[in-house]
Amino acid sequence: SIAILLYLARKFKTPDHWYPSDLQKRARVDEYLSWQHINIRGKGSKLFLTKVLLPLLTGQPLSPEKLEGVTEELNVVLKQFEEKFLQDKPFIAGSEISLADLVALVELMQPIGAGYNLFEERPKLAEWRRRVEEAVGKQLFQEAHEGILNIKNL
Questions:
Q1: How many domains does the chain have?
Q2: Which structural domain range is residue 54 located in?
Q3: Which CATH number covers residue 106?
Q4: Close Cβ partners of 14 (under 8 Å, ≥ 6 residues apart)
Q5: pLDDT digit string, tens, across residues 121-136
Q6: What's the pTM?
């Protein structure tokens, strides 16, 4: 949860870039963390649930119309994310990775796990993903997402 991440950042005095002491940068992180719940998380999870879990539980394929509607909802918030939060910066809060970037990319991995490559036609988003993965470490990133990326093997 966001509350736990903030607690851990404060308790263990993580490097400043994760949750910046600079008030303007911290405001950007807080703004994203407040926005993402019903936007990136909400729409990304909805796509994952309707494309993977519901067909698995019901044994019924998803209608193309339903999938199209859910995908379009996600595309709207992805556009907002690029325009409002990424803009022309390497990361959400500026030139360094923060908790906002980490939370954002983790949430976007659910649609990827569902088979929707949301980075494919979004070069700005794909470049941001590459920067976040590099900042975290590619191996650690892959390890952390192994379960969600292999969910279809269930």
A1: 1
A2: 23-153
A3: 1.20.1050.10
A4: 8
A5: 999 999 999 999 999 9
A6: 0.92
